[in-house]
Every structure is written in structure tokens, then in C-alpha cells.
Amino acid sequence: MISLRYMKVKEIKAIVWANFFRDVSGIKTLLPLLGYLSFGLLNVVFISYAMKTIPMSIAFAVWMSMALFGAALIDAYFFQQPLNILQILFLALILIGVIGLKLSGSPAPN
Fold it and tell me: Residue 29 phi/psi, 5° resolution?
């Protein structure tokens, strides 16, 4: 998701494909898009592995909560976005909910 922050669609549309390999700027313009596609594909692969061993609802809840926590921490640390006490409280409630789902003892699929 961070790569979306750096992706510039107008610059991608303006790439002159005939000169793409002669100029480094075209490759630099595509890096955020390539990162987004690569990590998106890995996301699908790894969540599919998770769903083979745990129920889909728990896998999805854990996956999305990890993404939410990761995004909040990256925003706070790298992009200097403030994280107030209410946001921390609600992030903790999400974490408690995910832990509760896991501890509820849902049977694993066959």
C-alpha cells in the first residue's frame, strides 16, 4: 500500500516506451507499480496458504488486522503521522477481537 503513495499515474502514462530502456527515469517511474503488483501477488499467495490451515474468517481477520497495524506503525514512524490515544485504543480493540476469534476454538478445515 505504501507504493500507492508514491505511484504517479500521469508519469506512468507519459512513459515513452520506445525509449524505455535508454532512460533510467522510466524504470524509476514504474518501481512503485511493480512493488504494488509484486506484494499484491504475494499477499494472495500467503493468505491462500493460511486459509488451508485455519478458517477463512479467522485468516482474513488476522491478515487485515496485521495490515492495519503495519500501516499505522509505518505512518507513525516513517511519515510522522500522529497516533493519538483513541487510535491506539481502537487498534488494541481490533487486536483483542482477533485474539478472541483465534481463541474461540474454531475447528480447522479438512
Answer: -65, -35
> What are phi and psi for residue 82, nearest 5 degrees?
-65, 145
Which cell goes with 21? Answer: 530502456
pTM: 0.67
**Strand blocks (E) in 1-110:** none
Structural domain of 110 = 54-110
36 and 48 both lie in a single domain: yes
Rg of the chain over all Cα atoms, to the nearest angstrom: 19
The stretches in the chain having pLDDT less than 70 are 1, 105-110
Q: Is 30 within 8 Å of 15 (Cβ atoms)?
A: yes
